[in-house]
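FORM 12-B: Structure-to-Sequence Request
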């Protein structure tokens, strides 16, 4: 072997090693997974190791970030520590969205409050541009002191919204009832922090107190986006039900324990459910009944 060939072999080995390392760590850091909606280096702040990102809201700007990849189905979770202290008027949004006309969207919106008063977590489901499926709960812990995990287990049969892996909401595929379901549009994952004081806190009565700015929400665990990534707009690898663990029969329904957890949340922490809002929906939307777990 000549010197030149040796160099080539060494380079090939190095390249293979790098590839292997990329394979191991791919998608683990913030910059691998996300692009920010802020270029000033202040309103989105990423830790040097790439494991934590903070969004900063002040009078000058709201901000956020979005995933570089688009997903169709999976177990998509992230850890979030919400704005501490006086967060009244602020809204932390964390959502999957297909971002197109007649879009699909799965929402977590955290509505801030004055110090000591409870946050509200609002979830919503849009399919084919139609939303209006808000549910609101209080949380059973203070979401501002530590990180908690929020996410969805989303497959072709159902969507389970989870908080610390506890199911808080079930949304079944009701296409058999003529209701659109998010099952064909790849969605990006987004997070933002903005001023929503026209509606967020006590229906808009409490305004953002800018003397308490900057408001800061923190995110981590960027490696747990376990979804089917759509490339070149080709969704068929993601709709193939046999290749993805989240389509297994164990995840097509909920078990008794999960049903009990959802009912526990509904009984103790629910503050609003579109299904029960007879002003908006004089007739209960037809998907509602099957989304309440039966014991
Ligand atoms: C804020 O606290 C008040 C008083 O406890 C409560 O009525 C309200 O639902 C809380 N959350 C929001 C987002 O307004
Ligand atoms: C805003 O916060 C400041 C400082 O805590 C306080 O003095 C002021 O009363 C607050 N404003 C409102 C409208 O609550
Ligand atoms: C979904 O992801 C979270 C975070 O990685 C994990 O804790 C949870 O067990 C996963 N869900 C399932 C059903 O595997």
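FORM 12-B RESPONSE
SEQUENCE OUT:
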């Amino acid at each position: 072997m000549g010197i030149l060939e040796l160099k080539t072999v060494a380079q090939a080995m190095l390249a293979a090693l790098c590839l292997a390392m990329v394979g191991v760590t791919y998608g683990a850091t913030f910059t691998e997974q996300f692009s920010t909606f802020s270029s000033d280096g202040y309103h989105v702040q990423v830790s040097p190791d790439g494991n934590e990102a903070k969004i900063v809201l002040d009078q000058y700007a709201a901000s956020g970030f979005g995933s570089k990849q688009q997903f169709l189905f999976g177990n998509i979770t992230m850890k979030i520590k919400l704005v501490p202290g006086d967060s009244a008027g602020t809204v932390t949004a964390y959502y999957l969205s297909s971002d197109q006309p007649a879009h699909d969207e799965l929402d977590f919106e955290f509505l801030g409050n004055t110090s000591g008063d409870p946050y509200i977590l609002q979830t919503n489901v849009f399919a084919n541009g139609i939303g209006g499926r808000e549910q609101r709960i209080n949380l059973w812990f203070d979401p501002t002191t530590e990180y908690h995990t929020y996410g969805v287990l989303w497959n072709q049969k159902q969507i389970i919204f989870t908080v610390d892996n506890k199911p808080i909401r079930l949304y079944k595929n009701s296409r058999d009832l003529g209701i659109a379901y998010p099952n064909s549009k790849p969605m990006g994952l987004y997070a933002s922090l903005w001023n929503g004081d026209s509606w967020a806190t006590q229906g808009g009565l409490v305004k953002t107190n800018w003397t308490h700015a900057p408001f800061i929400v923190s995110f981590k665990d960027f490696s747990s986006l376990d979804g089917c990534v759509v490339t070149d707009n080709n969704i068929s690898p993601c709709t193939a039900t046999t290749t993805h663990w989240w389509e297994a029969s164990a995840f097509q329904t909920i078990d008794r324990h999960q049903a009990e957890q959802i009912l526990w949340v509904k009984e103790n922490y629910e503050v609003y459910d579109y299904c029960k809002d007879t002003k908006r929906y004089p007739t209960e939307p037809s998907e509602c009944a099957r989304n309440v777990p039966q014991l």
